[in-house]
Amino acid sequence: MTIFVHNFIDDMTDIRTGNGYDVHALAEGLPLHLGGVEIESPVGCIAHSDGDVAIHALCDAILGALALGDIGKHFPDSSEEFKGIDSKILLRRTTEMVSGLGYRIGNADITIALQRPKLAPYIATMRETLARTMGIPTDRVSVKATTTEHLGFVGRSEGCEAYASVLVLSVSH
Ligand code: MG
C-alpha cells in the first residue's frame, strides 16, 4: 500500500501552493517601499530591511510552497548583511532557491492593506518590477490594494500589511 501511494504521487504534476503574510509599523518621514517600488508618502515602514511588506509576504509564500521555512530563517533581521537591503534582492535569492530545487513560480497574487496614500498609480509598476525580479511574465503577477475603511492598525495608519499566495510548479511540468 505504501509503494502504491508513493508511485501515485510521483505520477502527479507537482503543484505547490504557498501563502505569506507580513506587517510593518509606519512612521513619519521614512521611505515607503512596496512591491519593489518607492511610493511617494508622508509615512514609511520601520524595518531592518527596506520594509517592503509586499515582497516579504511574497517571499514567505514562495518559501512556504516548498516548505523551506520563512524569510526570517533565510534572511535574519539580526544580520548586518540585510540592514537596509533592497527587498528585491531577497526576492531574487528566493527565486534562485526555487529554480535550484527544480521548480518555477507559476503565478503570484498579492494584497496590500494600507490606509494612505492610494496605491492605484503604482500597481502596474509593482507588477512589472516583481515579475522581472522573479523572471516570470507580468500577467502572472497580480497586485491588489485595499484600505481597511479606517478600522484597526492599518486604518489608523499605524501599520501596513500584505498577504501573498503563489503557485510553484516542478519544471518538468
Ligand atoms: Mg517584513
Descriptive notes:
There is one protein chain. With about 170 residues, the protein is an alpha+beta fold. It contains six helices and seven strands, in the order H-E-E-E-E-H-H-H-E-H-E-H-E. The chain has helices at about 1-10, 55-65, 70-75, 85-100, 125-135, 150-155, and strands spanning about 15-30, 30-35, 35-40, 45, 105-115, 140-145, 160-170. The longest helix is centred in the middle third of the chain and has 14 residues, at about 85-100. Bound molecules: magnesium ion. Magnesium ion binds near residues 22, 53 and 56. The site of magnesium ion (MG) has 4 residues, from strand 1 and helix 2.
Summarize the topology.
Layout: H1 2-11, E1 15-28, E2 32-34, E3 37-39, E4 43-45, H2 53-65, H3 71-74, H4 87-100, E5 103-113, H5 123-134, E6 141-146, H6 152-155, E7 159-170
Parallel strand pairs: 5-6
Antiparallel strand pairs: 1-4, 1-7, 2-3, 5-7
The chain binds magnesium ion.
Name the features:
single chain, 173 residues, alpha+beta, 5-stranded mixed sheet, two-stranded antiparallel sheet, 30% strand, globular, binds magnesium ion
